[in-house]
Amino acid sequence: MQIMVAKRAGVCFGVKRALDITFKLAKEGKEGLYTLGPLIHNPQVIKKLIAEGVVPIEDVHNPAIRTLVVRTHGIPPSVYAEISKMSYNLVDATCPFVKKAQQYAQVLKEEGYQVLIVGDKEHPEVQALLGFAGDDVIVINSAGNNGNNSYSIPPLKNKIGIIAQTTQPVEALESVFRHVIARAKEVKVYNTICDSTALRLEETKELAMSVDTMIVVGGKNSANTTQLTNLSKGICAKVYHIETADELIDDWFTGSEKIGITGGASTPQWIIDEATEKIREISLRR
Ligand code: SF4
Hints:
This protein is of the alpha/beta class and 286 residues long. It contains 9 helices and 12 strands. The model has no long low-confidence stretch (mean pLDDT 93).
């Protein structure tokens, strides 16, 4: 059995940066160290952080906070304003690429564009972006696509500024743009999709085409990992999404000659390594 691991499997630049910052603070023995929401969408990493004394918290007013880490998804200006009233330290681990998207949303708003965000309205990154984008902002996600690139979009203003959640596929941005350009007088687009996501998706696509079984490693609550799973399912006959090596079952590999392994942007290398090692062991038993 041949096992191929995607080169870009595992944590991206932004998540690695946020993890490094937070584990360093924990190592320094900071008391009252909290993250605003789970730092990343990976239950195993969250467990490890809690063991180091770093607890996810939702309320920025909690009196126990001495240091609060903002995760890669960022926060809206209203939450920064609330935090500025508090006496604790803020450590901002918002990914620089997400910051850039927030800046573009603000610039578009200030230039009089109605901002249209291509992304998932419930995702924390989009929730934060909304705060920079003005009251008339619209969010469009792939679920709003009725097929044949027909979107349910409310009436648009004359000037539309489009940005995307950093983890969206570029096809989603292109498709929304094609729809909007037919309806607005002026359209400005900032491609805020992160290269790391686009490259990971492309690499996963190529890998899924060349294997007979794909293993996607990452949190079941990770949008990015789920996206990789869905993409693989459209290409490869056998695709399994696991969080840890313990979930791997020998039978999945019966009749498989080539196995592809990939992982989402929030999947640490050690979890991918454990899964790879277990698949090697399974292959030796066959
Ligand atoms: S996927 Fe890209 S934008 Fe998102 S955290 Fe990672 S590097 Fe940053």
